[in-house]
Design goal:
about 400 residues; alpha/beta; Rossmann fold; 2 domains; 7-stranded parallel β-sheet; 6-stranded parallel β-sheet; 15 helices; globular
């Protein structure tokens, strides 16, 4: 089978370190493991080809830019011509798989005209994100391009109920939408991976892996850890990642006089991340209160596959994945005191940590592998593309 994988978002460096980059790499890697021929059409590469992806043929879209936001948006929309050209050059394809981006509709429209099964993967309400966190000069244009892509797709895979609602509101046929949370490769993330950082005897390491963005709850984590460490001096905190809050986090750690028990290691290459997770005893995802929480956090699935008990905020679909008391413990979003109580409880009960970690690993292997997710999505895409009998 020959697949075109399209990622027209310049903010997603497909071979980079970001969570979105890892998502792309894992899907591509699964395609390759299946023995399928893959043509990657991407706006941003972000580095050399990653492990296991040497067989992927790469076409980089031209870099387009403009001085003003509205002109830039209209220029970016011209990427559709480049996408269409790359698809025409590489045809025939058996499947077109696109990671949805703000200004791209050509891949889905090309596939519809050519009669090719086509999957549109939607990971976030991109229009709302752009308007809230960045700058959106022409919302009408963005809405129009999104509707074109949604309507032209034959199968839409979304990561959460909230993203499904976003897609439905923009004319996507309900029968085309399939919800699949993110996943993990349990052969890469495993309790058997040697730790990158040696654990100090008698200590218990709470770990966070991800970008240092405000909505990830890192300031709440620092506050909660400070409270917890007073009650349990054995606790240590390991923060893996980088981002816009790093300077503020470092300053907060110093002000709270936590320098001796908190370690920030900065960004880590994806190949080293499994060893970072096995350097932890507890994995934490301390999200603050976010209306309409739509994320499907990769970190949670990676913690689970690494055999870590997970402490996560009870928001969005996280409670369905963690299942409080079964695979981890849930805390109240944005509540440092409640987070501290949860950490102290886990720190004081090695048996509970072991039970939750074992259960989390088993669930990751059973339910949330990239292999299973890709197989389900591809099978559903081909089923959706089959002609349906019409009763009269």
């Amino acid at each position: 089978m020959k697949i075109a994988y399209v990622c027209a978002d310049a903010g997603v460096p497909v071979f980079g370190h970001k969570g979105c980059s890892i998502h792309v790499q894992e899907v591509l890697r699964t395609f390759v493991k299946r023995g399928w021929q893959v043509e990657l059409i991407a706006a941003s590469l972000g580095g050399p080809v990653r492990r296991g992806l040497d067989a992927v043929s790469v076409t980089q879209l031209p870099e387009l830019s403009s001085s003003s936001p509205i002109a830039r948006e209209r220029t970016i929309s011209l990427l559709n011509d480049a996408i269409r050209g790359a698809l025409m050059k590489g045809t025939p394809f058996d499947l077109i798989y696109e990671r949805h981006s703000l200004w791209s509709a050509a891949a889905m429209e090309f596939g519809r005209v050519a009669g090719i099964p086509r999957v549109l993967e939607v990971n976030a309400p991109l229009i709302e994100e752009q308007a809230t966190y960045r700058e959106l000069a022409d919302r009408e244009l963005a809405e129009g391009v999104a509707r074109r892509a949604f309507v032209a797709s034959s199968h839409i895979v979304v990561v959460s109920d909230a993203v499904a609602d976003y897609v439905r509101q923009r004319d996507a046929p309900a029968e085309h939408i399939h919800i699949e949370p993110n996943g993990v490769d349990p052969t890469r993330f495993s309790p058997d991976i040697p730790p990158m950082i040696a654990r100090q005897p008698g200590t218990i390491t709470v770990g966070f892996a991800g970008s240092m963005k405000r909505w990830h709850g890192l300031l709440t984590l620092i506050d909660g850890f400070k409270i917890a460490s007073r009650k349990c001096p054995a606790l240590r905190l390991l923060i893996v990642g980088d981002g816009p809050l790093r300077q503020e986090i470092e300053s907060t750690v110093q002000t709270a006089e936590l320098d001796q028990v908190v370690r920030l290691v900065g960004p880590v290459d994806p190949e080293r991340m499994p060893g970072m997770l096995t350097s932890m005893d507890i994995g934490v995802a301390p999200y603050d209160t976010i209306p309409g929480f739509y994320f499907s956090p990769l970190k949670i699935f990676e913690y689970m596959a690494a055999g870590l008990p997970v402490v996560a905020s009870a928001t969005g679909q996280i409670p369905e994945i963690i299942q409080d008391g079964e695979r981890g413990l849930l805390s109240r979003p944005g509540d440092a005191d409640n987070l501290a109580l949860t950490l102290v409880r886990l720190a004081g009960d090695s048996g509970l940590r072991a039970r939750l970690g074992t259960s989390a690993r088993a669930a990751a292997v059973r339910q949330y592998t990239w292999d299973a997710i890709v197989d389900r999505v591809v099978a559903a895409a081909f089923e959706a593309a089959q002609p349906r009998e019409v009763s009269v």
